[in-house]
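Bumping my old thread because nobody answered last time. Still need a sequence for this structure:
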């Protein structure tokens, strides 16, 4: 039976697998096997680093940037839990309520102990909120997002894989500045939905601040995040900006 393309998970390169396992367990992930966790059917695969640490500067407008977002039922409680587990804030001033024209979501960005960026996302009345179990704080993986240099080219590349544009916006203003921990943010965002169920993809094209020059990210570097794809037609390996994609059935960490 044909299986529609989906985002099945993320692969992270980390300095200490045990430390990262404990960190992500605090955010709602459960262990499946050594170096492998899951949350609501979405995989998180952890591989020990053999290369460079996460590069500096490591801001949302940098070419190697990729984060994934967790839907939450209580963003203040979720942020407090992440900080207690070892997170470092990216956002300034705590969670930020974004304007209605950008979705009206409350969001907060932070880094895990290795510097990988993440986001918490809260939207009252969303499907996540309606399906939340009583007392749950972390609800699941909502999306992953990558920085792109050419929004049109990247949109077309992912559409050729089977992704479908689900919306777009231009985010700017003081709330976006505080969310990203940057000044003068103007970012164009395209949301792309895969044919299958699960997380969606967001493409982030920063007009301002201008991205720093790209720097190669080698396999085994902490910044070598992989988007794990499942379903038919999931054999792509690199997008136009060098972000890694891979099938989920690799015996080793998928590069």
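Sorry it took so long. Here it is:
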């Amino acid at each position: 039976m044909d299986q529609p393309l989906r985002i099945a998970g993320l692969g992270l390169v980390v300095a200490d697998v045990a430390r990262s396992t404990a960190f992500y367990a605090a955010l709602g992930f459960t262990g499946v096997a050594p170096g492998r966790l899951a949350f609501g059917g979405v995989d998180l695969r952890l591989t020990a680093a053999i290369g460079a640490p996460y590069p500096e500067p490591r801001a949302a407008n940098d070419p190697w940037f990729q984060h994934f977002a967790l839907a939450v039922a209580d963003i203040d409680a979720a942020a407090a839990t992440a900080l207690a587990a070892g997170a470092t804030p990216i956002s300034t001033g705590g969670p930020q309520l974004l304007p209605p024209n950008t979705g009206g979501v409350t969001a907060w960005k932070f880094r895990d102990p290795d510097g990988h960026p993440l986001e918490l996302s809260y939207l009252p009345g969303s499907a996540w909120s309606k399906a939340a179990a009583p007392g749950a704080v972390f609800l699941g993986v909502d999306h992953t997002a990558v920085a792109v240099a050419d929004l049109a080219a990247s949109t077309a590349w992912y559409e050729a894989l089977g992704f479908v544009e689900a919306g777009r916006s231009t985010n700017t203003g003081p709330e976006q500045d505080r969310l990203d921990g940057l000044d003068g943010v103007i970012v164009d965002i395209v949301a792309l939905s895969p044919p299958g169920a699960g997380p969606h993809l967001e493409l982030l094209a920063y007009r301002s601040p201008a991205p720093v020059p790209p720097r190669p990210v080698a396999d085994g570097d902490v910044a070598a995040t992989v988007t794990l794809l499942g379903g038919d037609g999931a054999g792509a390996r690199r997008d136009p900006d060098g972000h890694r994609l891979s099938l989920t059935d690799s015996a080793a960490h998928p590069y």
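The chain has a mean pLDDT of 90. Let me know if any region looks off to you.
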